[in-house]
Structure formats: C-alpha cells, structure tokens
Amino acid sequence: MAREVHPDMEPSAYGLMVLLHQQGPMRLTELSSAVGVGKPSLSRQVSMLQTLGLVEKHTDPIDGRAQPISLTESGSARLEGTAAARKAHFRSTWTGWETEDLLTLAKLLHKLNTSVLPPGGDPAIPLPADGREGEAGPGS
What we know:
By secondary structure, this protein is mainly α. Helices cover 54% and strands 4% of the residues. It holds the Pfam family MarR.
C-alpha cells in the first residue's frame, strides 16, 4: 500500500500516515509512543516522508521547541486516493457475495483485530450487536 501512496515510500511509513490522518498533528514523542518505535527510527521515517512532500512539521505556538507533524495536502490526498482504490477493489471482489457471508467476514475480521490488541486496548471501530460496521459494510 505504501508504494501506491508514493513509489519511494517505505512500507513502514504507511502506518504513520494513517495515524496522522486519523489523529491529526502529533509530536514525534507522541508518534513514537503510539507506534512503539524508537524516536531515532521514527525520525528517519518522518524525514523521508517530509522529503517526499507527504508530511510537514510546524512550530508549536505554545511550546516553540515542539514540532507537531501533520500530513500535507498532497499526503492526505494520496492516502485518501489509495484508501478509495482499496475500497473499490474490495467492493468489486465481493460482488456476488451473500450479505450473510459479508457479515460473517466482518465479524471474523473484527475478532481477529481485537485479539491482537494490547491489554485494555479498544478496537478502532467497535462492531455493533448486529455485526454491521455501518452503511458501507466490511472494508469501508
């Protein structure tokens, strides 16, 4: 997926972009804590993303030493384009599947995702009692 965002992007940087897209601007220490990667390694990934024009650092108006990192407009557009292409691919793959099969798939994927969460972690998208994840269905 990383190469779909930018051909020179490292695969591990894709998750950083997704996190920044979901959470908004974050400091390097916050990113490091969120992904469980040391600051030196993360700093290299952020620098690479900056060079590619996908993220940018800003000066924090309250703490001038802090530099929140956020997606650029280009980074956001590329990430959203990749996500849209993935959704379209999955939707076309699932054409012809019975609704019950799709609901079973969604339940099992949810179970898989929650089984790998750290203790006390919450799933990003809780599954309602009827097993439906919203109007778009699985893969949205």
